[in-house]
Amino acid sequence: MSGLRVDVELHRAEFSLRADFEVAPGEVLAVLGHNGAGKSTLLSVLAGQLVPDRGVVELDGTPWLDTERRVHVATHRRGVGLLAQQPLLFPNLTARDNVAFGPRAAGASRARAREIAEHWLTETGVAELGGRRPARLSGGQAQRVALARALAGDPRLLMLDEPLAALDVDAAPAMRGLLHQVLRRQETPTVLVTHDVLDAVVLADRLLVLRDGRIVEQGPTSEVLSRPREAFTARLAGLNLLAGTASDGGVRIGEEIISGRVVEELDAREPAAAVFAPAAVAVHRDRPHGSPRNALPVTVAALEPRGDVVRVRAESGLAADVTPAAVAELGLSAGEDVWFVIKATEVAIHPVPGGSSGA
């Protein structure tokens, strides 16, 4: 297929990486895992900064790496765009000149590079800051400029390495929304490395989970997070996710509408997801009446002690964290039919990449 194809093995004294996956043109693949899982190592292999012991990295049929044929394309010739945790802008250049740097280095005229820079500064919402140097930009503004710089080079592969990790709680949601808007217009494959499951929910078409240098799960984002096949992935997810289409301040899933707080403006019938924490879920034997809450019928699959709470996991993949006293009072056990009830104020409604399936 066209797009990115990766099949590599890398062994070091303290760590090994084994990865085999593909990313289609225009697709966003999120790589999720704890610290030390191998996420950054994988990006280094894709960028050409690390050479694996064995394997192939191929983009649109062109080999960047083929150890058997002794092919290794240097980093600067791969056409990779990178947005990292820190903006890493040149401090002596204005925002405009930072963005124009890539096109100029690729041979564009000064006028053409400036035109490209202005376009991407506008696309990322910071056109009015083009004359400022990095020291006069906020963290969120600098990261927007860094995104513009990554895109201005017309990358063949876009890599996002924890792009929101260094932003404060006010700047991160706006940047996440911007990335969602920008990425869905891209035709190149994108690899997003993150430890935040919300980044994967909002930005990624597909999800790949790494543990100790091995892929333990991969597939459509909503499917992996709502129906994890491994306990590790379920713990990593840590959130409930219901995917459907936007409708009247909520998400329509079949005949049901899950109401919540709309985080980013949505068009009717646009792919969207309702996201909420297990701690926000109350468990009832009967459906509550006369209350503006979301109520979902579920069948209990398992009860998992977790410190001071018990996680009630449903066969649908949804989870609720309740007290041991509540479990005893309700007489819960596997196979029981109950209601998961969530206040609308505890549910965040996010746009998601098209093609996601409901939970």
Automatic annotation (TrEMBL):
Coiled coil: none annotated. Residues 289-351 form the Mop domain. Residues 1-237 form the ABC transporter domain. Keywords: ATP-binding, Molybdenum, Nucleotide-binding, Transport. GO terms for biological process: molybdate ion transport. The keyword Methyltransferase does not apply. One of its GO terms (molecular function) is ATP binding. It comes from the Bacteria. This is Molybdate transport system ATP-binding protein.
